[in-house]
Task: structure prediction
Amino acid sequence: MNNVRIDVPKSAKRGEIIEIKTLVAHTMETGFRRTQLGKPIPRDIVTTFVCNYDGVEVFRAELYPSLSANPFIQFSTVATETGTLEFKWSGDNGFTASKTARIVVT
Amino acid sequence: MGVKSRRRFLTVAGGLAAATLAPAPRAQIMRTPLNHMPAVIRRLVGVRSITKGRVKLDVPPLVENGHLVPLSVHVDSPMTAANHVKAIHVFTERNPLPEMVTFRLGPRAGRARVTTRVRLADTQNVVAIAELSDGSFWSDTTHVIVTLAACLEEAPV
Result:
């Protein structure tokens, strides 16, 4: 999917702490704004971000309207085994996005 | 206008300007009201106490654009199975909602450092609270001056 950008190292040494950068395209409409005619604009945000490493959750974030549009999250994890990192976002109005990355651990 | 009367005019005008300007600015700044942040933090920690320290909240002290403010939190922790950071909560004082973001991590994070980008509705304090595996809470507070606020502006029709 091209509405997601991730930056994960292709390979790492066992036990190494790797930095992961993620970004998902989303307006993050706060629900606090009004149109010029005074009509409230309903909230439409990403509420949850999860990172699974070989099916095991290693990181999670709960998002609120205070996060900027196109939420960017940078975090770390320990490279344990060669495997798959899965990134999943979900939010209002049934929004979902996901992406996976393969990492080779030596 | 002669030199004398011009001088007199300037003196009077200057005086008037000073008189009208001096007390005004503070009263004219529209501050976003405080939200219910203390109550939300209380609900999170319950009866336990929050200690200042171990957490480092990095936000620029002065931001021009409240729509995109880099925010980074680092917690001093060995991140072992026995002693790690369970969660990092970030709160704001004057955004419409006090909750900003919650990160849930564990020993597999390796280090307790997260970075994101947030919106700030006004000049205010931002608070980061770390919840450790031993049940203790640690915090750091940063004051941020915002010149262009986010959140409350009108959107195009």
Notes: The CA atoms of residues 3 and 25 of chain A lie 5 Å apart.
